[in-house]
Fold this protein.
Amino acid sequence: QKEVEQNSGPLSVPEGAIASLNCTYSDRGSQSFFWYRQYSGKSPELIMFIYSNGDKEDGRFTAQLNKASQYVSLLIRDSQPSDSATYLCAVNTGNYQLIWGAGTKLIIKP
Amino acid sequence: DADVTQTPRNRITKTGKRIMLECSQTKGHDRMYWYRQDPGLGLRLIYYSFDVKDINKGEISDGYSVSRQAQAKFSLSLESAIPNQTALYFCATSSGTSGGYTDTQYFGPGTRLTVL
């Protein structure tokens, strides 16, 4: 059973601080990793994806991938109240399907 | 704007009824997916289709069926609805042209289904 694990939270972070969200996966053959943001009652929207070990930056967001340790993380710098949402990690294990984590609820406190 | 739309947005039905959820897209994508989302659980794949003549079962297809009427339309049916099918249902699309491992999925707004 291929699994993707995320801490459900909520993770509470002060405004302006760095929020760190983590995701672990069970399938060593996993090839690419996606972070989506989902506001309550809304649909998931893509933040970014990563497929190479190391860091990938996009604005205030940085994805970090460590395939040897089977984890991927998302850092949000200068957190804003509008970043309060549930963050979903999804893993492509190579058959064009995504395996999804249950998400981490992030709360940014003003 | 190229978009993914779902109808209805909300539906309340009774046990045993047949119900159809519809998805349309103007993104020109070949690949379409149906997911359900339950509180505390990740998105779970019900069915997916890579083109009009290609239909595949996902993780939780029992109790569901689909129809790909055209490249832009993908419908999900519950032949005889039961209460544990109460969930938020999402349609998603992807182009399939950006490389298999970076093929990004784009979601419709969702249908909230309640089966009494």
In short: The radius of gyration of chain A is 13 Å. The interface with chain B takes residues 4, 8, 31-32, 34, 42-46, 49, 51, 88, 90, 92, 94, 96-103 of chain A (CB under 8 Å).
